[in-house]
Amino acid sequence: MSEIILRTENLSKSYKKRKAVDSLNLEVYRGDVFGFLGPNGAGKSTTIRMLFSLIFPDEGKIELFGKSLKHERKQALMQVGGVVEKSDFYLYLSGFKNLELLNSMSGKKDKKRIMEVLDMVGLKERANDKVKTYSHGMKQRLGIAQSLVSNPQLVILDEPTNGLDPQGMKEIRDLIRELSSSQNMTVFISSHLLHEIEQIATRMAIINQGKLIAQGNVKELLNTEESKYFFKVSDTEKALNLLKEKNPGIETSIHTDGFECMLKNDMAPEINKILVSNNIDVSAIIPKRTLEEYFLSVTDNNKN
Length: 304
Fold this sequence. Notes:
The chain is α/β, with parallel strands linked by helices. The two termini are 35 Å apart. The mean pLDDT is 88. A six-stranded mixed sheet has the order 6-7-8-3-9-10, sandwiched between helices. It has a four-stranded antiparallel sheet with strand order 2-1-4-5. A four-stranded antiparallel sheet has the order 12-13-11-14, with helices on one face. It has helices at 44-51, 73-77, 95-105, 111-120, 136-148, 166-181, 194-200, 218-222, 236-246, 268-277, 291-301; strands at residues 4-15, 18-29, 33-37, 59-64, 67-68, 80-83, 154-158, 186-191, 203-208, 211-217, 226-233, 252-255, 258-264, 282-287. It folds into two domains: 4-217, Rossmann fold; 226-288, Alpha-Beta Plaits, CATH 3.30.70. The chain has eleven helices and 14 strands. Helix 3 packs across helix 4, helix 4 crosses helix 5 (136-148) and helix 5 (136-148) packs parallel to helix 6. It is globular, with a radius of gyration of 23 Å.
């Protein structure tokens, strides 16, 4: 079993009568790209602020690398970097100067490392340009660079693709993959953009109204009993008539080159066999189950 490097136990935080985080138990393993998912207001940012000791829990414990955040704060946070909500920079200074200034506040003056992380996030060529000339996506990447200067083993990113266009999202996605694979960093990334997390996370937790709804391996969690399948077939009308005859309970929706239907996961081969044996060519069978569908199903099931 891999080492657990981030653990919360019954973590709770209230604001007046509203419980923002409610008895939250998380486990993040070394090497994870861990997706921390939930709608806006679910308690993600409150949790991350507690992980960085920016606010304190009402109840519960946080351990980072086996050390108690309450009793060994400095040692626990020593190997952690991250971005909480939005990074603020001096717009009139260059990207390099901003990172140099922030680095010097911790007593370090490692210019080589600053250039390394700027290169890592694709900003090496713009290192000496003022931040006010940076696009929103470049500022997001500069924020990630800021979190990498100390060469942490765990990087915590709060909504890093917020407000980005599709190209900007792809750049952040590629960067997170790079941090995980080439830099051997564990990445904890919160988001409400479920499709983004589905493409990069190895494990995930879903919270809603401050409560943990699901946690585990992404592929295993998505492998539920029933999924939506797309069948690409040579004759859609004939295929649907055949299904209606053989399996009248299956609901289908028509597409230009095939159809979609909800099936138990062990039924797809059987449906394929029926179609092929009746001279209908099946050129593709594509599971359509997505993290978004899973998220909606588990949150709906846990309302009140």
